[in-house]
C-alpha cells in the first residue's frame, strides 16, 4: 500500500486537538517530534506527557487521499496559525516490519560480550551472548548510554558479585552482568513494563533464577558490590542517597544517562558519597564511575 505524509508545525497547546482532527479526516497515524534538537526533552517519567513549545506534526495518509483537501482543512482549523505552511512527502512502500528488524544487528562490547537480536545468527557462539529484542522497555545496547555501561561491566571481574541495575529497563545490564559471571543481579525500575520486560529477557537468557526485580516501593534493603544506574542526570542527582544506600564502602558505581554538559553537576552531587573517576564519553553522552567512600 502506498502512503503519503503531511508535515507542519503546531503549538503545544493545540497538539491534542490537531491529532484528533487529523484522525477525523482520514489520517492513519499522527506523530509529533521536536522542531529542533535544542528543544529535545530527555527527562520524563513513565506515563508523563510533555510537548515541545512548537512541535513538528506528521500525519500519514493513504496515497489515494486528496491531499489538497487535507491541507485546506488543516489551514482552516481554528487553532492553526494564519501563516500555516506544510510539506507533503511520498512515503516509500516497503515491508516496514522487515525494515525495522534489519536495523538491529549483533553488537560487540569489549572483548567477549555480544548483544544479539533473536532473529539474527550469533556471530561467535563461544563468546558471552545476551539475546535481547527491542520491546516494552528501554535498552538494546544501541544507545550510547547503555553501551557505556556494558563496556564498563565487560571490563571487570564480576565473579561471585551481586550487581544492582538501578533503572533496569529491559534488564540488559543485569542480564549481561550475570552472563559475565555475577552470582546475583537485582533490577529496580519505576515502570511496571520494565519489570515485565526484564523478567521475560532473563528467562530467554536462562538467568531468571539469578535475578530479582522490584518496583522501588517493593525493593528490600540489601548490600551489593556493584551498582550501575543508567537513568538520567536529574533522577541521578535526586536519588543519589537511595542509589548509594544499596552499597557499602568500596562498592563500585557507574552512573550513565548523562549528557556531557551535565557531567560536572552529577559528579558534584556525588562527591560526598563517592570517589569518581573522570567521565568516559561516547557521542554526546558520558558515564561516570568510581566507588562508594
Précis, in short:
The protein is of the alpha/beta class and 293 residues long. Helices cover 27% and strands 28% of the residues. Strand 9, helix 6 and strand 10 (211-214) form a beta-alpha-beta unit.
Features:
single chain, 293 residues, alpha/beta, Alpha-Beta Plaits, Rossmann fold, 2 domains, four-stranded antiparallel beta sheet, 9 helices, 15 strands
Write the SSE topology.
Blueprint (H helix, E strand, L loop, with lengths): L2 E9 L3 H10 L4 E6 L19 E9 L4 H9 L10 E6 L4 H7 L4 E3 L3 E4 L11 E4 L12 H11 L7 E5 L5 H8 L4 E5 L3 H13 L6 E4 L11 E5 L2 H6 L1 H6 L6 E8 L3 H8 L3 E3 L3 E3 L2 E8 L1
Parallel strand pairs: 6-7, 8-9, 8-11, 9-10, 11-12
Antiparallel strand pairs: 1-3, 1-4, 2-3, 5-6, 12-15, 13-15, 14-15
Helix pairs in contact: 4-5
User: How far is the first residue's CA from the last residue's CA?
Assistant: 61 Å
CATH homologous superfamily title of the largest domain: Vaccinia Virus protein VP39
CATH class of the largest domain: Alpha Beta
Number of DSSP-assigned strands: 15
Percent in strands: 25-35%
Question: What is the approximate shape?
Answer: elongated
**What series of H and E elements makes up the topology?**
EHEEHEHEEEHEHEHEEHHEHEEE
Q: Largest sheet at a glance? A: 8 strands, mixed
Radius of gyration: 22 Å
Per DSSP, the total helix count is 9
Mean pLDDT: 88
CATH fold-level topology of the largest domain? Rossmann fold
Residue stretches low in confidence (pLDDT < 50, at least 5 long) are 37-44
Share of helical residues:
25-40%
**Can you name the CATH architecture of the largest domain?**
3-Layer(aba) Sandwich
For the record, the count of structural domains works out to 2
Structural class: alpha/beta
